[in-house]
Amino acid sequence: xKTISFQNDIxxxxxxxxxxxxxxxxxxxxxxxVVQETLIKCWNKRDSWQDIDSIPAFATTICxxxxxxxxxxxxxxxxxxxxxxxxxxxxxxxxxPEASASVISTEDPHRKAVNSDRMAQLESIISTLPExxxxxxxxxxxxxxxxxxxxxxxxxxxxxxxxNIFRARQTIKNRFID
Length: 178
Prior knowledge:
Elements: H1 6-10, H2 14-25, H3 28-44, H4 55-74, H5 99-104, H6 109-127, H7 131-142, H8 147-154, H9 158-177
């Protein structure tokens, strides 16, 4: 039986948990609070760590639930990603065709404005996706998890994960073109 330690097995998850919480809460401060509360809850369950099949799935579930609770309490269910202070804190730049290189380069102001508008549109579309689709898309495209890992983390079947990702991408594609 594997011995689970907080320092070696749970604490290294904090960056991934922060990114998850940030994408849900859309606030650095709230995301930090969610991660801290997640780590505290994990620590408080230390007596039952040996009974948990997957510590990352356990921590991710706690983090997701706390982040969702946080957004409900704050009344930010429909807050847009473009209200965040920095231009692209969530790493969505890589998902926009032609935008990733051109956003960084020095180009004419018109092209920068077009790319900025594309980013705002894409971030707005992603923020309106259903929670499961948003989480599956985040874990697959931003965290680079495979379908099996996502299914384990979100406690769903691999087919459900694939369906959620497909639907999220279709929605983005259809709304982004319009």
